[in-house]
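Checklist before submission:
- one chain only
- standard amino acids only
- sequence pasted in full

Submission:
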Amino acid sequence: MNQMELAKALARALLENEKRGKAKSFSSLNSLRSYFSAMSMEDLLGIATQNGITNF
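Returned file contents:
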């Protein structure tokens, strides 16, 4: 998985966890994905681990 794919998966997983299975909105997803895409792969993996997200 490359950095952009991880950023997208992480954004989706965080929004789904917050809303219990449903992403809040497309714009929220895009905002988070954009934010995460500017981070390093190491930072993204750290955020995923801290939030218990392992299925990306």
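Reviewer check: The chain has a mean pLDDT of 80.
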